[in-house]
Design a protein that fits this description.
281 residues, alpha+beta, Beta-Lactamase, five-stranded antiparallel beta sheet, 13 helices, elongated
């Protein structure tokens, strides 16, 4: 009897955790919004919002979309919220190689090729490499083959001791930047895969603190404007600043999760070195 009662309790808890009201409350709390603040943003009464969270009121499809939009819920999770309220998914999710996404793939390829001779790559929501231009491959000399087999995780490749870590001159600074950015993404998405990735990266050997290093100044810059990626090379050190591009109007789940990371040289020496590597391709 105890086991049966416990099974029933667990079932009710799971059903509650899968309910629209539970998910709505979770996302509101992740965004650090009070019921009153969200209600004002969404143009509804606080009482109505409270009833939605408690399950005393059932939302319309438009209300689910309105609230998830106000909460900046990722498209993938907006579909989950719709399902929890008994509605079909609104946002399509197709693989990137689907015919309907051919234009998007062409745009990604154009951006990557157009950024040559400098590195640029495209990743998915878990930082798995989707595509990269030739300049990226020039920078991977000495990386352990197992890090390049199968699905390549760009952050793991960056911080792994057998990856780029041994060549990153400002590794402590770059590691802090990567983990901080990853932390923001976890906070925004609540993605357990990203949380597991952060735990893995944090377990890698911790480099010498930035304050103990004397080789981190970017030539020609008295004050930092952004965190550079500085790499050892056979000649002069290479120094890049990264920019991020996303499809800001995407309504497809897969496309909304594609990010393009483009690296720009911070000095003439890096620009010249990348031009030489490109000519030798």
């Amino acid at each position: 009897m105890v086991a049966l009662r416990r099974a029933g309790y667990d079932g009710r808890m799971k059903a509650h955790a899968d309910s629209f009201g539970f998910l709505l409350r979770q996302w509101r709390q992740r965004r650090r919004l009070s019921q009153l603040a969200l209600a004002l943003d969404a143009g509804i009464s606080q009482r109505h919002l409270s009833f939605l969270e408690s399950g005393r009121s059932h939302p319309s499809r438009d209300m689910v979309l309105q609230l998830s939009r106000q909460l900046d819920v990722p498209l993938r999770d907006r579909n989950v919220m719709l399902h929890s309220a008994g509605y079909a998914p609104f946002f399509p999710q197709r693989p990137l190689d689907a015919p309907d996404l051919s234009i998007a793939r062409e745009i990604i390829d154009r951006i990557l090729r157009g950024h040559l001779p400098h590195p640029a790559l495209a990743v998915d929501r878990h930082w798995t490499l989707l595509s990269a231009n030739a300049a990226v491959h020039h920078l991977l000399a000495g990386v352990a083959p197992h890090l390049l087999d199968g699905d390549v995780n760009v952050l793991r490749l960056s911080l792994h001791p057998e990856g780029l870590a041994s060549r990153i001159l400002n590794l402590a600074e770059w590691r802090h930047h990567v983990l901080t950015r990853l932390g923001r993404e976890i906070e925004r998405s609540a993605d357990p895969v990203l949380a597991a990735l952060r735990n893995e990266l944090e377990a890698f050997p911790v480099p010498v603190p930035v304050a103990a290093r004397s080789d981190l100044a970017v030539p020609g810059h008295s004050q930092a404007i952004a965190v550079p990626l500085r790499l050892k090379s056979n000649a002069e050190p290479l120094s890049f600043l990264a920019t991020t591009t996303v499809f800001g109007t995407a309504v497809d789940v897969t496309l909304s999760e594609v990010t393009i990371e483009a690296f720009f040289p911070t000095d003439k020496e890096t620009a010249n070195m990348m031009a030489v590597l490109d000519d030798g391709t």
